[in-house]
Amino acid sequence: MEILGYPFMQRALIAALFTGLLAPAIGSYIVQRRLSLLGDGLGHVAIAGVGLALLTGQAPIPVAVVVCVAGSVLVEVLRQRGKATGDVGLAILFYGGLAAGVLMSAFAGGGTGALSQYLFGSLTAVTSGDLVVIGVLAVVVLVPTIGLAPQLFAVSADEDFARVLGLPVRVYNIVVVVLAAITVTLSMRTVGLLLVSALMVVPVAAAQNLVPGFYAALGTAMAIGVLVSVGGAAGSFYLDAAPGALIVVFAIGVFALSWPISTILARRRRIPVVITEPAEHPRIPTPHVLAGTHPHQHGDPDCDHPAVTHGDHLDYVHDGHRHAIHKDHYDEH
Q1: What is the rounded distance in angstroms from the CA atom of residue 324 to the CA atom of residue 322?
Q2: Which position among 151, 207, 311, 319 has the lowest Cβ density within 10 Å, counted as fewest Cβ atoms?
Q3: How far is CA 174 from the centre of its chain?
Q4: Are 175 and 147 in contact (CB under 8 A)?
Q5: Residue 39 burial class via C-beta count within 10 angstroms: exposed 0-12, middle 13-18, buried 19 and up
Q6: Cα(111)–Cα(117) distance, rounded to whole angstroms?
Q7: Phi then psi for 302, rounded to 5 degrees?
Q8: pLDDT (tens digit, 9 = 90+) per residue, 175-230?
Q9: What does the alpha-carbon distance between residue 97 and residue 102 come to, in Å, rounded to a whole number?
């Protein structure tokens, strides 16, 4: 393939591969915490790191990682101690980071033009040194993201329940924001700091449409992330387009396709499964055992519990057992 004959595209495709794995992986926890715009806020803090690197003449990625991690920990500690709510913390990240980055870039003589390749991505500018840093930090992020998945999911989904389980909620919350900060900084060469949040959220949303369960959605989101990132990087070569924008457009396209597919899958899950009674055994009357209350009505359009035909009525399967509608309540079957 022609594209693989260029060393800069080889580096670009490898960087896109790492980004496609990392961003949806940590994005799965961010979406669970309902902080989908956290990536945007961290991206603005990373701009301050890039500005500091330009001012001091250092390599942008290591400086941006340090500044972004420090900023994310500070805001998370303020949120945990009640000194700032989640939205106020994000506002501090947005405006403080952007203002500091632009000012330091101006003092360095680069102005806003020097920041543009980090704001919108510049895959073809990835150097061999950048690739080594990206690869090492990708391993640093992926190991805890996957290895601590049960703990991070518990903390992200329900902090109170995680405390009951005895988990150190504050520590794991800081782990999540630190991993997110590193991911955002590494992605500034591929999709750019202004678009990285889309790669953290959109593949996760598409995966949740396609498969049930957190772990299945996590794996599917990472697969979608790799597909759109590598596809966008390759597409930018042939279309002469900005890689970051193309990657995000591809991700939104996958999300749009997942929408009707999720509707079809939901309808298939609602088709009743017929349970046949053994012919050699007499029919055994079902005992009348009342089930607990339900937050929704089985059989409604928003009910995703599989329906099972049982004799002359329908049972609905959830939590490993079956319920049957009986007058104004449910019976255990």
Answers
A1: 7
A2: 319
A3: 17
A4: no
A5: buried
A6: 12
A7: -90, 5
A8: 988 998 888 888 887 777 777 888 889 999 999 888 888 889 999 999 999 999 99
A9: 9
CA–CA separation, 216 and 155 (whole Å): 18
Specify the DSSP class assigned to residue 289.
-
Q: Which two tokens stand for residue 297?
A: 């009505």
Tell me how crowded residue 264 is: count the other CB atoms within 10 A of its CB.
9
Kind plus residue range of the DSSP H or E element containing 286: none
Higher pLDDT, 104 or 36: 104
Instruction: Tell me how many degrees the CA angle 126-239-4 measures, rounded to the nearest 5.
Output: 50
If residue 326 lies in a helix (H) or strand (E), which one and from where to where? strand 321-326
Residue 248, SS3 per DSSP: helix
- Based on DSSP, count helices (H) and strands (E) in the chain, helices before strands: 12, 5
> Who contacts 180 (Cβ-Cβ below 8 Å, separation ≥6)?
26, 29, 30, 38, 39, 42, 72, 200
Q: Looking up tokens 């060469």, which residue turns up?
A: 189
On whether the CB atoms of residues 332 and 290 are closer than 8 A, the answer is yes
Instruction: Yes or no: say if 119 and 193 are a contact pair by the CB < 8 Å rule.
Output: yes
Residue 174: both structure tokens together: 């800081």
Length of the chain: 333
Give 3-state DSSP helix, strand, coil % of the chain, rounded to 5. Answer: 70, 5, 25
C-beta separation of 223 from 231 below 8 A: no
